[in-house]
Design brief:
7 helices; 2 domains; 206 residues; Ribosomal Protein L4, Chain: A; 14% strand; alpha/beta
Length: 206
């Protein structure tokens, strides 16, 4: 697969060959779904917590005598049946993550890249660099290029000025090649990969 390379000003800067084994696959939603679920579950904090009967602040004194009241037998006001009592079998801190092999995660990333290429939402950029960390100038270039909710994937490192300039742009997100992931790629409308990013992704996925 061959795509044109453009600069931030919209001018062409040659072309690049993309491997069909990474960008030419038939996207499978079942693979993408499994990888996204793994990603989101792993990111979930899992810090939800309720107080059990032994943790609520109540006296442990028996609330009334065992027999002769005509009512049910109760030992303490902290029982789950009472308002303000402990919660029975409530959520406790835990990890929501589950295992997914590296091979399958790589496959998911390939299918995510292929899905953007198949829909024509993949753009190859010469380089993501800016002379100054000026948001206004970069915002105009992005507007002229027609990018909406764009994810920019660079090489091993991200240009500091470009990252600073995009910090206040809600529609632009930039990641180094090692940060490229299925969820962010699918969430974006336009996927922009620099030439350095293409080389880094090929080295990572081969």
């Amino acid at each position: 697969m061959k795509l044109d390379v453009i600069k931030l000003d919209g001018k062409k800067a040659g072309s690049v060959d993309l491997g069909d084994e990474i960008y030419g696959l038939e996207p499978r939603t079942d693979i993408l779904h499994r990888v996204v679920r793994w990603q989101r579950n792993k990111a979930q904090a899992g810090t939800h917590k309720v107080k059990t009967r032994s943790e609520v602040k109540y006296s442990t004194k028996k609330i009334y005598r065992q027999k002769g009241t005509g009512g049910a037998r109760h030992g303490a006001r902290s029982a789950p049946i009472f308002r303000g009592g402990g919660v029975y079998k409530g959520p406790t801190p835990r990890s929501h993550g589950h295992e997914l092999t590296k091979k399958f995660r790589k496959l998911g990333l390939k299918h995510a890249l292929s899905s953007k290429a198949a829909t024509g939402n993949l753009v190859i950029l010469d380089e993501a660099a800016a002379k100054d960390a000026k948001t206004g100038a970069l915002a105009k270039q992005v507007r002229d290029l027609g990018w909406k909710r764009a994810l920019v994937i660079d090489g091993a490192e991200v240009d500091a000025n470009f990252a600073a300039a995009t910090a206040n742009l809600s529609d632009i997100n930039i990641l180094p090649s090692m940060g490229a992931n299925v969820y962010d790629i699918l969430k974006s409308d336009t996927l922009v990969i620099t030439k350095a990013g293409v080389e880094a992704l090929e080295a990572r996925l081969k």
